[in-house]
Amino acid sequence: xxxxxxxxxxxxLIRGPLEGRSIEGVRVEWERSLGGASRRAFSRxxxxxxxxSVGRRGKxxxxxxxxxxxxxxFVLVHLRMSGRLHVDAAEEPEREYTRVACAxxxxxxxxxxxxxxxxxxxxxxxxxDVLGELGPEPLSSGFDGAWLHAALRARRRLxxxxxxxxxxxxxxxxxxxxxxxxxxxxxxxxxSDRVSAxxxxxxxxxxxxxxxxxxxxxxxxxxxxxxxxxxxxxxYQHQFQVYGREGRPCRRCGxxxxxxxxxQRGTHLCPRCQPRPRRRARGTGR
DNA sequence: AGCTACTCCTGGTAGC
DNA sequence: TGCTACCAGGAGTAGC
Length: 286
Known about the structure:
The chain has 286 residues and is of the alpha+beta class.
């Protein structure tokens, strides 16, 4: 599933072919991919605009648009489970499951392909309306052990659901949360406000390290869905320590990796490296 | 405040 | 072989 490293890879690879191109026409095959806008309104907003820049915030690919050199809104693409972006020559055969396509100057086409239809290809006037709700970027300079420790203590939540909360920290999904918690030797059911400063620092390092290494390998292709815009699978799935490895030996200690369910999410951990938290004593705190 | 359950979707797969 | 039932999963929402 595309998380921060996959989205970063996509943004980097479509930047070259997209920046500076004008949008000459749009085709909408599945209207709900637009996230509420009508085909007509979407078309009107897009047609004639030029792609000024391509970036990423959290799990969003962000296209900044301009008209006559002035800001003209943004496209926010969320790939969710099965979304992909490709820039193809217009004469290339149609891709199966294409939901939205934008014809570009120079004879290419930006194609949003999404088997499961959960992804979104939205036009917004003000990107901050959406991106402003997100927590900090884990690879930004402001994210470190001290920040994380304070933020964890300000909440009373289970670690895993909190790290998946995009308003808390932007960009992590199911895979990288499991990998980062393993690396920091923290159990996913640990209470956020019981994580020590030292453990929080280890977790911050684990998050940054996992994401950085995954970006270097162009993300993870655990299932058939994620491919880079060039059609290649990522390579980080070969580095997984726990995700998808239930019943197989922990690479650190040899104990079988376990799979539990936390907040309706499949969750992978080594029961020896990540010991179960002690139950909070009744009446503690507050 | 934070938790659970449900919804959106479809290809793949387990079970019969 | 061919059918059905169920599953994964990010995020939004409702209800407790």
